[in-house]
Design brief:
The protein is an alpha+beta fold and about 180 residues long. It contains four helices and seven strands; from the N terminus they run βαββαββαββα. The protein is globular, with a radius of gyration of 16 Å.
Length: about 180
């Protein structure tokens, strides 16, 4: 797990989920795992759900655009000196992007919603999702009004305010 040194001006507001919030998160992560089974990426199987007022309003998995496996470039390798961010080294639409698009296509307002993101192994078991790093996902979430990102780490489940998630994603790339 990576730890970040945040600027003194930055107020950390992430929450480690407990009690009923934790139980509810486990329920949504079950849905994330099921959705991630649809992923067509050859590197990672990821899923995301967006929740508003206790209901899943959008879902997504990572795959090439339009699920066209012919366009898959998952195995493309980039030289180390190329400072291409991890989130841009893929041909796939991110699960978060698809969940946002799915929700918007259904006419939902994302303001105040919560995005749950996870990745699975080949048997469908949830894996630790890692620290916030995708600035594209965080900017899209900010722009659409998503209030929080929820990630499952190896030792807990954490809810990040989207602005905090965005800041942490940029800090990740400075290290």
């Amino acid at each position: 797990m990576r730890f970040f040194l945040m600027p003194a001006w930055y107020h950390v507001s992430m929450r480690i989920l407990e009690g009923s919030d934790l139980a509810q998160a486990h329920k949504y992560f079950e849905s994330v795992a099921k959705i991630a089974m649809k992923a067509l990426c050859k590197r990672d199987k990821c899923g995301a759900v967006i929740v508003s007022n206790g209901m899943i309003i959008g879902e997504g998995y990572n795959a090439p655009p339009n699920d066209n496996i012919v366009d898959a470039k998952c195995t493309c390798e980039y030289p180390e000196h190329l400072k291409k961010p991890k989130s841009d080294r893929t041909c796939c639409m991110h699960a978060e992007w698809r969940a946002i698009l799915d929700s918007l296509k259904k006419g939902n307002d994302l303001k105040g919603s919560v995005l749950y993101f996870g990745r699975i192994d080949d048997q469908g078991n949830l894996l630790p999702s890692g620290e916030p790093y995708c600035t594209v996902c965080s900017r899209l979430a900010l722009d659409t009004g998503i209030a929080e990102f929820v990630l499952e780490h190896s030792d807990n489940i954490v809810a990040y305010e989207t602005k905090e998630y965005n800041e942490m994603s940029y800090e990740f790339h400075k290290q």
